[in-house]
Amino acid sequence: MTEIETIGDSMAPYLQEACSDCPALVVPLTSYGKVLGSLVLLRGPREPPFSPEEVDHARILGDLGSSAIGRIALLEVLAESDARFRQIAENIREFIWLSDLATGRALYVSPAFEGIWGRSRQSLYDDPRTFYDAIHPDDRARVEAEMPGLGGGAFDVEFRVVRPDGKVRWVRARGFPVRQANGKVFRVAGVAEDITERREAEFERERLLRREQSARAEAERREEELERVTESRARLIRGFTHDVKNPLGAADGYLQLLEEGIVDQLTGKQRDSVAKARRSIGSALRLIEDLLELARAEAGEVTISDEATDIREVARAAADAHRATAEAKGLDLKIDLPASLPPIRSDPIRIRQVLGNLLSNALKYTDAGQVTVRVDLRDGPPAPGPGRWLAVAVADTGPGIPEDQQRFLFQEFRRFRSADDQKGAGIGLPISRHIAHALGGEITVESEIGKGSIFTLWLPLRTSHGTQAPGPKQAAA
């Protein structure tokens, strides 16, 4: 092949076989720098070669062909991209749309619109106002102000949509401008998601928070009221007992003078009457002291010392103080103490006060059998907390306490015998529990009808060296 003019790649080999003597012109067809084909111009044998003007025309034809091929390839890419977009958009829960800036018309509406708005896609294609007409009346003005039409710019707004069936859905809608190569916005893409579940969860959290805050405020108000009432009652008790204690003390003093014959000599019968009056006054004065102690305990004014305390000695002393009462009733008072026990850090006087109350109650309500004071170390249930505890139990063989009444045991002025058998004012146990708490411990009760009761004073095991003592070996004392 001779006298062949080529543009770009050399002449294809098959042309040489077809016409080795034919003048030919090959123009490559390219797209984005890649050769996609060739425009071949071929003349007959011994015809003149292509002139420069013909070469220029061929070059122009090649450019037009390259442009056409590029457009076709671009359309194929766009069609493939559009297919992928539709496949994604039509299979997700969010509503996606594309609108024209100039007309505001919807160019594309995904199927999710029907699920959220409860209206057909075609209705939005036909009338862009369908988007706004479904918005809750209370939200519409705000949305229209923040969202300047389907052909507007960027926005991000949350609102309610009222479906034709009356159901209300919460929606978050966002819009994004689509720009041309020159930067001019000509379309708007948008996405709207159903956020009803999220908003309802937020509303529920807010409701629970308000409820919690209200409950906390009410609890604080009640606590303040309780503190005020407690303090008021404590002041009343202090004032009342002070005003009553003085004249009672004076009356007892006058009766003592009579009893001792200082004022005048009394007959035996008169002396017995005066003695009974003094015993009644003594009971009243002890009750007044108990009321004062209760008032101090409720006000947190119980004084607690911190010293090395031998619980064995405290328990033995408390039992010995009540032995005469036990013998008078024909009861057996036993003490079951460990063979050894290291001293603990506590208040021996307050512990003896509590044990005195427990022993007094046990002896008071037990008509036959025995009362036992037992001391041991325990951990785990029924201890009031983790760690090791020193348990001082007072067990009796009395009638027992009904289970439905046990929760009232530590309330003031509660008694559990009949009205003709009033034994005390019913404030010993409440005072004892207040003292137990001040000691860092607790008082618990176990009772069964016909088998008796066990009241246990629990004390935290703090030794004088700050360590826990080993488990004791039980021995009868």
* Helical stretch tally: 12
Shape: rod-shaped
Any idea what the radius of gyration is?
51 Å
How does CATH name the architecture of the largest domain?
Answer: 2-Layer Sandwich
CATH fold-level assignment of the largest domain: Heat Shock Protein 90
Task: Give the fraction of residues assigned to helices.
Answer: 40-55%
Class of secondary structure makeup? alpha+beta
How would you sum up this structure, described in words?
There is one protein chain. This protein is an alpha+beta fold. The protein has four domains: 13-87, Beta-Lactamase, CATH 3.30.450.40; 90-194, Beta-Lactamase; 204-298; 307-476, 2-Layer Sandwich (Heat Shock Protein 90). It has helices at 13-18, 52-89, 112-117, 121-126, 129-133, 137-146, 196-259, 268-298, 311-321, 323-328, 348-365, 428-438; strands spanning 24-31, 34-42, 95-100, 106-109, 155-162, 168-179, 185-194, 307-309, 332-338, 344-346, 370-379, 388-396, 442-448, 452-460, 474-476. The strands form four sheets. The chain has a six-stranded mixed sheet. It has a five-stranded antiparallel sheet with strand order 4-3-7-6-5, sandwiched between helices. A two-stranded antiparallel ribbon has the order 1-2. The longest helix has 64 residues, at 196-259. It is rod-shaped.
